[in-house]
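Dear Dr. H.,

I hope your travels went smoothly. While you were away I took the liberty of generating a structure for the chain from your last submission, since the lab meeting agenda had it listed for discussion. I wanted you to have the full record in hand beforehand rather than looking at slides cold. The sequence, exactly as received, is reproduced here:
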Amino acid sequence: MLCACSLLFVSVAIGLVLLPRTAPCAEPADAAIIARSHTRQSGAEPIRIAVALPLSGPRRALGAAVRERLDRLVADIEAHGGRAGRPIDLEIHDDACSREAAAELAHRLIATQPLPVLVIGHPCGVAAITAAPIYQQAGILFIAAGTRHPKLTEERAGPLVLRAAGRDDRQGMEAGLRLRGLAGESGATIIVHDRTVMARTLATAARTALATANAPAPIELQMVAGEADYSRIVTAIAAANPAAVLFLGFPAEAAILLRQLRQAGIGTPVLTNDAMATREFVDHAGDLLSSHVEVMLPVSIDPTGHAEAETADGLAASDAAAALTLWTAAVAATGSDEPARIAEHLRTGPQGPYGITFDQKGDAQMPSYASFRYIGGAWQQAGGSVDARNPPAAHTTGAAH
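The corresponding predicted structure, in token form, is as follows:
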């Protein structure tokens, strides 16, 4: 008989079969959830993997989305037969999206035997940053999925910490590269911002990206937020005749400026930051959104799911599925599940699934953002993906979240 909080296991790509766990229960019932069950098909020692998610508290919908995506991934792998091999023990645990719960969970995981060879998840920044050094010290590979806060890898706990997600501080850099793509190799560009700290930080990163790409230096125009007329900015843009404009600010000002530009007959493509992906901007801009307006939005490291913008929960779910796929491919390639060997393979080996590799800091070398256009009531990818294989140095902003 299984006790009330026993976990059931799911199989994944290295031919991993399903079996019930019969170890004594050592954690509260809400700390883990039942995934799937199956009869044991192998006498081999199972590989233990833990997935840490917010299953309680205000971010529990995030945890549910990740769990659902992993269930679908496993079902797809099973449908294709998998391969005979070691069974895998995939456990789903609650970190409540908090420092305290994440630390308690991490210490509980490293106190059990056998140790998990991999922990995936902790999509909330505070949880991932708290738990990472605990896993590193215990010799457990930690692939943070959905965690976009820069501090995780800027202050990396060690080589066993990897990030299967983009970084929030790369929006400005990638917006600059997209701006150059819209303008062409030698086209003039203008950056308009509202002088807030957020906008100035993004503008600085965009200018740095343009300079690194040997693009012409952009003209910079500053506006005052809250005004109802930006004809001065419109006149300056008309005089410069740029090939593309980057607006950094908030929806109300963006909608006013866009309307005045189009009324003045200026059809220049306008790229904006992610603050414009709101109902407020859509309602205020209306039909003007069809006049080549793009918004930078965060994307998963899985490039197959970028056609339509994902919610924050959807991004974390896609990143978690990519993390599990990358790990199973690395195990198949190396013939080992030893954490240090897998981490080194993911960083220095051949490109994994989706063409993903990891850099010296442990970040996935994939775009963190892409540009989207509002089409048919949804944000659809505009194309022209940013090359993030060797991005300029990122500018750290924000707090753990």
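Two observations you may find useful: Residues 170-298+368-381 form a domain with the Rossmann fold fold (CATH 3.40.50.2300). The longest helix spans residues 312-334.

With kind regards,
E. W.
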